[in-house]
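Q: I'm building a small set of examples for a reading group on sequence design. Run inverse folding on the following structure and report the sequence directly after it, with nothing in between.
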């Protein structure tokens, strides 16, 4: 068995950028004139590379991963070796080895935020705002970005989404009063670009860096709309500390009477019989006598229904209140259900002083025991002296 004679050819290096087309004259073409007959080739090429022996051309367009290492973002170039063996078909014993190196440089692909720099977004004082931006980077689809900001308002946050690492979330609730309508004692009322309302404009700069150190920067504008609050008069907690409050204790008498005529009942109440007076002179306050008469008709109990009561009553006197003089008339109906455990009622009333000011009411009672009842009701209408909610606990003996 004979030994083949070999000639070694030095291996030069050729620098390429990935995605750059390669057209190289194979070194084997330089060797073929020294061999007798046509050349025979054995060669090894990088994946995707092709060799045309007729024209002596090596073609290769490296893909986007050819110049980087997905396991090591710091790698910015990779080296590929092209080797081969050439021999004459007239002399199968003699052969020459050849080879050279191709260095592919990494070229970062597009890296940007998915917003136009300078884009305007509208916020409102007192309203929570959340904005999600996306990072476009085909080299690092699984994230690993570092983000930062400039001029972000106090209380605003910037964070990378832990589930979708290419999402960047901005959150901010502008406090009421964020938009200033006066600065340095002078009127200052900038208008919103989007709504023409009063706004404070904040330009926020966002920056992101990928694992390989490439950076992208964008700027967005927040127009924060002014929200006007209704004026409120707030008294300090100690406003009554120096008031001279009169403390008096006086006795009074209330009277009541009821006549029972089977299913019909007639009643009369008189309050403040002695009309006590508190204070002296112009600051004196007198509790005026009040009298009221009422009529009620009761139905017969039937099973779980303990019966219905239809009633009407009226004031016999006029009483002064903070809402003016009042003299009421009223009518209503009441029923007790669930064997006397739940009571419901509804009625209408009116103030007969000056023009009639009607009001409607509804309520419910719960019998905790036979003697203790919890009551709640609501009155609504033009008569402000009775309008509102009412709750009470009553005890019967």
């Amino acid at each position: 068995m004979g030994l083949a004679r070999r000639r070694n050819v030095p291996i030069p290096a050729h620098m390429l950028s990935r995605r750059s087309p390669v057209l190289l004259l194979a070194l084997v073409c330089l060797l073929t004139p020294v061999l007798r007959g046509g050349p025979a080739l054995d060669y090894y090429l990088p994946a995707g590379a092709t060799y045309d022996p007729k024209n002596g051309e090596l073609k290769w367009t490296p893909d986007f991963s050819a110049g980087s290492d997905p396991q090591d973002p710091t790698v910015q170039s990779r080296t590929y070796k092209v080797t081969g063996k050439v021999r004459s078909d007239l002399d199968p014993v003699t052969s020459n080895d050849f080879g050279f190196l191709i260095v592919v440089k990494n070229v970062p692909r597009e890296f940007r935020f998915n917003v136009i720099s300078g884009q305007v977004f509208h916020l409102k004082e007192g309203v929570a705002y959340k904005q999600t931006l996306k990072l476009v980077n085909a080299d690092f689809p699984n994230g690993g970005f570092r983000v930062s900001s400039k001029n972000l308002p106090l209380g605003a946050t910037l964070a990378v989404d832990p589930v979708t690492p290419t999402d960047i979330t901005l959150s901010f609730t502008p406090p009421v009063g964020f938009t200033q309508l006066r600065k340095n004692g002078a009127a200052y009322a900038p208008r919103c670009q989007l709504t023409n309302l009063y706004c404070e404009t904040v330009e926020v700069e966002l920056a992101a860096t990928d694992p390989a150190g490439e950076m992208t920067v964008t700027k967005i504008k927040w127009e924060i709309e002014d929200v006007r609050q209704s004026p409120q008069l707030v008294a300090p907690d100690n406003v009554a500390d120096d008031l001279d409050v009169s403390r008096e204790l006086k006795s009074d008498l209330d009277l009541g009477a009821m006549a029972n005529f089977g299913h019909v009942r007639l009643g009369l109440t008189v309050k403040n019989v002695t009309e006590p007076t508190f204070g002296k002179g112009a600051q004196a306050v007198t509790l005026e006598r009040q009298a009221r008469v009422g009529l009620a008709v009761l139905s017969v109990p039937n099973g779980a229904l303990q019966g219905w009561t239809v009633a009407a009553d009226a004031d016999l006197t006029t009483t002064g209140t903070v809402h003016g003089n009042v003299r009421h008339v009223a009518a209503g109906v009441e029923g007790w259900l669930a064997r006397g455990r739940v009571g419901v009622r509804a009625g209408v009333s009116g103030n007969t002083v000056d023009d009639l000011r009607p009001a409607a009411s509804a309520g419910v009672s719960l019998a905790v025991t036979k003697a203790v009842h919890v009551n709640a009701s609501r009155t609504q209408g033009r008569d402000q002296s009775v309008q509102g909610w009412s709750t009470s606990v009553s005890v019967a003996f």
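The chain has three domains: 6-105, 111-225, 255-277+286-395.
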